[in-house]
Design goal:
140 residues; alpha+beta; Aminopeptidase; five-stranded mixed β-sheet; 4 helices; binds coenzyme A
């Protein structure tokens, strides 16, 4: 969609991003201002946002720890879906990750989000039948 602008999250965007995630994602225990500030301090270019004018309509985090890359907080405003914004966010994030040295990227897909499975397949991801993801909450 030609009038959508894509750019990295700035510190002034954080409150808007948190409100957007409240409405457009399935939530998450680390949706806090502090967590975003920590991420931006490490990777100022890897939380990508899509805007329609001053309205935030999409986001993705391309996380990179120097060893593995993974996507998080992919979301598109429900009034803007199926217009290619999610694909554009992922492709832009992939280019940034490749430039940093990433060669494989993971997407953790919520089991109760069937549209997300279709989306990730459409951008070239396949189910990982080699690894079963284990997770643990640490810290407070
Ligand atoms: C998943 C999500 C980000 C997709 O964003 P989007 O901007 O609508 O995606 P795109 O328009 O780029 O879609 C690209 C392709 O993905 C597939 N796709 C996307 N949404 C789909 C859906 N609801 N059903 C089936 N296929 C879908 C299609 O193949 C689509 O291509 P097409 O429209 O030409 O058929 C969006 O639906 C969303 O925010 N969902 C809620 C949050 C979420 O589940 N995030 C993912 C967490 S892992």
């Amino acid at each position: 969609m030609s009038n959508i602008q894509y750019r990295a999250c700035a510190i002034d965007d954080i409150d808007t991003v948190l409100k957007f995630w409240d409405s457009a994602t399935h939530g998450g225990s680390i949706n806090t201002r502090e967590a975003i500030l920590t991420f931006l301090d490490l990777h100022p270019d890897l939380l990508l946002l899509a805007w329609d004018g001053d309205r935030l309509v999409g986001s993705v985090i391309g996380a990179w720890d120097g060893w593995r890359a993974s996507f998080a907080r992919l979301a598109v405003h429900d009034g803007y879906r199926r217009r290619g914004i999610g694909r554009e966010l992922v492709e832009r994030a992939e280019r940034l990750l490749i430039a940093k040295g990433a060669r494989r990227v993971y997407a953790n897909v919520l089991n109760d989000s069937p549209e997300a499975f279709d989306f990730w397949r459409s951008v070239g991801f396949t189910p990982n039948d080699v690894i079963e993801p284990y997770a643990k909450n640490i810290g407070r």
